[in-house]
# Entry
Amino acid sequence: MSDARPLVDLLLRKSKIVREGEQALSLRAQEDRGRRWADENGYQVRRVWKENLSAWSDVERPQYDAAMAAVLGGETNALWCAFLDRFSRKGAEAVVPILGTARVIFDYERLDSSNERDRRWIIQRAEDAYEYSQRLSHNVRTTKDRQRREGRWLSAAPFGLEINDPKDRKIRPAERWGVIEDVFYQIAGGKAARALAREYNSAGMRTATGKDFTAGTVRDIVDNPVYEGWQVGSGGKSQKRRQAYRDEKGQKVSVAEDMARMIPADVAERARRVLHGHQLPEGFRPGRTLHLLTDLVRCAGCGSAMTASGQSMACSRNMHGGVCPAPASVKRTTLEQYVAGEWQDRIGGLEMGDPLVVAVAQRWQALNAPEETEEAREAVAAVKAAEAAIQRLVEDRQAGLYDGAAGKHYPRLLKQAEADLAAAQERQAKFAGPRIDLTMFDDWMVFQDRWEASDLSAKRDLLRLAIDRVTVTKARARGTSSWARSESLSSGQSPSRPHRRRRRRRRSRNSPKLRSAE
# Structure
């Protein structure tokens, strides 16, 4: 015999994330309470929605959204919630849509959204919860900011470190500190992150959580300022990289018990330059897996990076099972030929005295000097790292990292980054020699021969002086040409080249066309 009782869904939430997840005791207690309510009021439970997360405004709540869609769409007759502040802390805006349109039961408060007499009380309690959450958030943020300024480590100690005294919460090297040192020195010496992770896994080593090492694990260690002894800031969801925290004066704050025992700054900086491709270690030669356009190509469909896949470059989001509205794919060698040709045309069309021409010649000279020393390579790497640091600052500002109070630090940090770049360029100039050779730009064939004679590392570096991004658009149909667009953020705009057209590379009917697979 079918159950004719009306349906009710249960919305359960524990605001503090715990290891037990959706099996937390408080969630089970809420479910028992909800089922008793259903039995006492003649309802049958259709579905239980469980959350183990915050209900604050910047948190995605797919379970809450689905529960609301179900009750507003008529899939269930009612929605039960143990406490109003477990429902939402966004205030009246969260409860107004349900008033008079759907039945939501707030058990503890004994309020029912379908009851006209409860409307005012529901709105009032929702606003009370919102006000409490705002006040709590302010207090927590203020307390944590003070503790950061005092150099206290606020969470569990990172891998390889420990907290010595719970009162001052300073960190110091722990039992597995040797692994951290090995990571930094191996990467600084040219070891690939993926190869190092495989080496650790083969030796039976595991991370702090008991998982295998990955290239991402190694990158997270190298990029974390805490291993140099610096406090780490909280940049919110927009911050992709860990950054050193800065106080109200813009100064870094030490969180180490003894800075001398931490990773030296020069080792850390070198490891990061090598890890992110700004510096190749002495004696290193690019392998077959390193491609000319790696990290430069983007899919127009979703904006994701395009990565090498066999003989092609394809949308990485689509390759890893994500959703891309128009996933692009193109033969890698064809794209490389096309972009290299566009780069040569762009540089060849500039005036002889153009700053970009001088920059290309200077970098070319530094990269291909036969008498180049390790010190000279360090100088070139420092320039690339300084350029990347400025780019990161700009990207972080666009992502909102310097909104609000943190905005006062941005001009000073940008000025310091520009000063670092100027100092790195001055140091590099000492190794480039007093004279910059521009004669190769006078003859197109010489220019092209010099390009072909450069190794892969030099070509990758030179391309990025004039081209910051290559965007590939999926073809309309199989067999038709896709569209690749290079963006030059370094020069600001595409150069005009009226008087140098005779040196442009002539494209024949057999010149490569970009094609994107379905």
